[in-house]
Amino acid sequence: MSFWRQAMAIARRGLLAEGRSGDLLWVVLPYGALAVFLSPVALDTTRSVLAEVGFGIAWIVVLLFGMFVTFRRSASVSPAEADMVSLLVGDPASVFVGRALASSVLLIGFELAMAPLVLVLFAPIGPSSWWALAGIGALAALGLGMIGTVAGSLVGGLGSAPALAPLLTASLSFPLLVGASVATHRLVEGDGILAPVALLGLVNVALTVAGVLSSRPLEESA
What we know:
The chain has helices at residues 3-21, 23-43, 47-75, 79-89, 92-121, 130-157, 164-189, 194-221. The protein is mostly helical. It is globular, with a radius of gyration of 18 Å.
């Protein structure tokens, strides 16, 4: 079986498992929507100020609630299940790519569900900019999916140090959060978004290389 067929099989398996559990639909989405909806009430400020800070708040919500899904999905793999996947697949890099793809798809679904509420509450974006917004969201989701996969693998390999996961996730997610927030804000203002989008792309490339290279050592330490 080729590398990509192995990765897609792993991704399909992860998505089916999430579909059976329903955590994204019944737990994460309602609480994420509530967090976004209550943000203007907590800030108690004008709509112009909300337009300035709203997308930053939205990306923090995506980070906090989305990473719960990706990290839990990666960390919930039992040792027996990991051994079985390792024997069947053989290439740890394809396992990393497959799990990261599954997490990214879940995050994109979360972003799509949150997008109408965010646009209504904070700053509407014209249809001509929707493709750019979708690209920003996809890049952020890919990066967060890889971070969650690596964090879950680390916790699986270092079972005595689960508290490292939030610290690792927060530190690695910072450039993604900055890039996505700046890009969406500039999109609303009508300014150029090349620099923040380039930052998102570079971070994704770095995460891909790091994840692939570390996949075998992490598998051996699990």
